[in-house]
Amino acid sequence: MAAEVTPLARRAARGATVTAASQAARIVLQVLAVAVLARLVPPAEYGLVAMVAAVVGIGEILRDAGLSSAAMRAPELTVRQRDNLFWVNTGIGALLTAVTIAAAPLVAGFFGEPDLTGICQGLAWMFLVNGLATQHRAGLVRDMRFRALAVVEVAAPVAALAAAVVVGLHTHDHRAVVVQQVATTAAVLAGVWIAGRWVPGRPRREPGMRGFFTFGGGLLGSQLVGYGADNLATFVIGVTLGPGPLGLYNRAYQLLMRPLGQLRQPSTTVALPVLARLSEDPERFDRMLLRGQQVLALPVVLVLAVVVGASEAVVGVFLGPGWHDAAPLLALCAVAGGCQTLAYVGYWTYLARGLSGALLAYSTVTAVLKIAGVLIGSFWGVNGIAAGFAASAVLEWPLSFWWLSRVTRYPGGRLALGGLRILAQAVPAGSAAWLVTWAAAGTPAGSPGVSLLLALAAAAAVWGLCLTVPPLRRDAALLADVLRAVRGGRR
User: What is the DSSP track for 147-194?
Assistant: First the structure.
């Protein structure tokens, strides 16, 4: 039985190797971009872009329409079906570009910020560009050409950051951020078309298209609901508190949640085609989920625990002077991100088993939690909004296991225990990071850089002590085994 899955496991290992390396590079680039541009662009200018970005994000979900995931997981995908999906994504992108350009003055009027007209019209072109790239990127994933995709996804932000820095040095305003985002999408488009070596044919009637739109529609609905709930905080802060507080929240959110997204989304890229092939083998499917949780969540949640404990040092190092008020926001975002990561394997299950309708129902329920948390927290300002967002994420983690177990066979109990074991390591490590930064405050060791190094050292020492507990040591050994398999797959 083991021999049957060896080729698939080998391809997954190679994909995980390349994806892990590319995502490490992308995260470094993302953090570098935030650190550099935060020193060129003030918080209020970031807040202006964040107001539009919340609207643009909804359009991006509409532009994809769930069809990239539908193409990646489909057992069979004909050339004509792929051509049709390309033209659907491109057509939606072109329509959204035109609508957004026309509606830009209305967005500016709603927020009372005239500069939003130009920002909105500039970012609108991302819809068309991404529409042209959607199925080419999905094709690289479906064919497990992770190396080619990794090259594109690393080269694009490098080029975009260079362009943004040039603009930022001359303008010191929001135009640098707009250029960065548009340039990234343009570079990705060029890269995936070159790597994909596919020129779409004209759209034609083809049997079997309904299944793609049915799955995509359910996924689209769940993504819209989830995105709206996640970005309600941005809307509330922008409308009630203005661009200054929104800039602080946006940089804290982007410094943390953007790199997390760059870890979680590519983990889906690797896991989805493998899980789809194992969906009829419950034992192997469960084993993949349990391993996936440890490989993804253990290192991520440990790092987030350090961010919670040493948030002021992290802000001082990566955002610099003038961003001190973002520290509690960063800590609360880290709490939310940790809980979301612990539950993320449930999302893999929905996609691999084609449960887009059930995912929509679950997303609606969790959206209500997020909306309630943000609205209640808004009575206490921007920090209260971030706290409400974090509290809803804490509640969503156990809810995700229970909800999914109602609609499909799913090892929710074992995954919950695995998550608790991860927290048993992360909470002490984060507490140690907080203790040393608190003790160093007001001393020569209290500078942001030194404090962060001390926090990392203390967290590592405490984690080492945690590994004396046999179940926790076995989880770390599993992570090490997977990493060795990844290195073996690379060879």
Answer: HHHHHHHHHHHHHHHHHHHHHHHHH-STHHHHHHHHHHHHHHHHHHHH
Q: 199, exposed or middle or buried, with CB in 10 Å at 0-12, 13-18, 19+?
A: exposed
Domain boundaries, the chain: 40-207
What are the tokens at 277?
């092939």
Task: Please give the DSSP secondary-structure letter assigned to residue 375.
Answer: H
CA distances from 50 to 103, 116, 157, 176, 243 (A): 17, 10, 19, 13, 8
Cα–Cα separations (whole angstroms), residue 79 to 40, 76, 209? 47, 10, 12
Q: How far apart, in whole angstroms, are the C-alpha atoms of residue 205 and residue 120?
A: 36
Among the residue ranges 215-229, 373-387, 423-437, the one predicted with the least confidence is 215-229
As a dihedral over the C-alpha atoms of residue 354, residue 359, residue 360, residue 366, rounded to 10 degrees, the angle is: -170
- Residue pLDDT, tens place only, 290-349: 888 888 888 899 999 999 999 999 998 888 777 888 899 999 999 999 998 998 888 888
Across the chain, what does the average pLDDT equal? 83
Q: Count the helix, strand and coil residues of the chain and give each as a percent rounded to the nearest 5.
A: 85, 0, 15
Do residues 207 and 80 touch, judged by C-beta distance below 8 A? no
pLDDT at 4: 41
> Quick one: average pLDDT of 187-195?
91
- In 3D space, the residue among 86, 77, 72 whose CA is nearest the CA of residue 270 turns out to be 72
CB 302 within 8 A of CB 426: yes
Query: Higher confidence at residue 275 or residue 369?
Result: 369
Q: Which of 195, 69, 199, 81 is nearest to 134 (CA)?
A: 69
Report yes or no on whether pTM surpasses 0.90.
Answer: no
Please state, in angstroms and as integers, the Cα–Cα distance from residue 472 to each residue in 375, 407, 466, following that order: 38, 30, 7
Half-sphere exposure of 205 (CA within 13 A, CB side): 0
Spatial contact of 233 and 248, defined as CB atoms under 8 Å apart: no
Q: Which residue has the tokens 């982007």?
A: 254
How much of the chain exceeds pLDDT 70, in percent? Answer: 91
Going by the DSSP 8-state scheme, the letter that residue 408 receives in this structure is S
